[in-house]
Write a structure and sequence with these properties.
This protein is of the alpha+beta class and 157 residues long. The protein folds into two domains: 77 residues, Ubiquitin-like (UB roll) (Roll); 71 residues, [2Fe-2S]-binding domain (DNA polymerase, domain 1). It contains five helices and five strands; from the N terminus they run ββαβββαααα. Strands 2-1-5-3-4 form a five-stranded mixed sheet, with helices on one face. Strand 3 and strand 4 form a beta hairpin. The protein is elongated and about 55 Å long. It binds FE2/S2 (inorganic) cluster (2 copies). One FE2/S2 (inorganic) cluster binds next to loops.
């Protein structure tokens, strides 16, 4: 029996209406149905942050939210940030500071870091660490990631 539920949301500004299986998680819907594979799936238990997306402006774990729960919501993924100045400067800083190795955590890190860039405030390294504490990186030791974010957020006029 088909239990799919008609769901309407916007994804990176584009309206999407689709019948969605009630048990499908948001990150799986984005990846498998819409081909937005920038959001990664790591732990699938809300621990690693690889699946970070934004729903109605708030950072959420795409593996903990059902896609049907996004009905009526505005969803943003790392792909949708590609034209934003914030992402461009963060990407450049990550590159220059060697803030990624395998890159698995990077989309989630960028989504989380974008909050700090958008706020236009200055942050201490401790505050930056606290903000990205829900995003795990198994490669870098975090030092270079904090370096990159610090350079961007504290270098803003
Ligand atoms: S895959 Fe969602 S938090 Fe790890
Ligand atoms: S760069 Fe590999 S997990 Fe962060």
């Amino acid at each position: 029996m088909d239990h799919a539920v008609e769901t309407t949301l916007t994804v990176n500004g584009t309206p999407v209406t689709q019948r969605i299986e009630p048990r499908q998680h948001l990150v799986d819907f984005l990846r498998e149905e819409l081909g937005l594979t920038g959001s990664h799936v790591g732990c699938e238990h809300g621990v690693c942050g690889a699946c970070t997306v934004r729903v109605n402006g708030e950072i959420v774990r795409g593996c903990l939210m059902l896609a049907v729960q996004a009905n009526g919501c505005k969803v943003e993924t790392v792909e949708g940030l590609s034209d934003s100045k914030e992402l461009a400067v963060l990407q450049k800083a990550f590159h220059e500071k060697n803030a990624l190795q395998c890159g698995f955590c990077t989309p989630g890190m960028l989504m989380a870091a974008q909050d700090l860039v958008r706020s236009k405030q200055k942050y201490t390294r401790e505050e930056i660490r606290a903000h990205i504490s829900g995003n795990y990186c198994r490669c870098t030791g975090y030092q270079s990631i904090v370096d990159a974010i610090e350079e961007v957020v504290n270098g803003q006029g």
